[in-house]
Amino acid sequence: MSMDSGLTIYQQLGESDGLRSIIETFYGNVVREPLLAPLFPEDMGPVMEKQQQFLTQFFGGPPLFSEQHGHPMMRARHMRFPVTNERADAWLACMNASLQENGVEDELREFVIARLKGPAYHFVNTP
Hints:
Layout: H1 9-12, H2 15-30, H3 45-58, H4 64-69, H5 74-78, H6 85-101, H7 106-122
């Protein structure tokens, strides 16, 4: 997969199936990350489904998250979790590794990570 300015990021990542694979790999990485694993429930199914819906919408696909849950308001939805800069870094590292493991070429991977940095650090709510 490589950058193609004629396609949405969602399309470049392989649409629903490609994004699903990235998300499954990502949460496999998250459960092994000591800074992140304690923040997540044992049953990752619902978390993965919401992530699929959000990232689909965030990367230019159908507005699945908004249709199911209303406005994303992601900072408010994450306020109950102690999100630190270190946890944001770890989250981005897990996503970066997932993109690499799924064969996303460097240019697209770097663009995706750059796009996710804003939200990741916007969720920081704990020193």
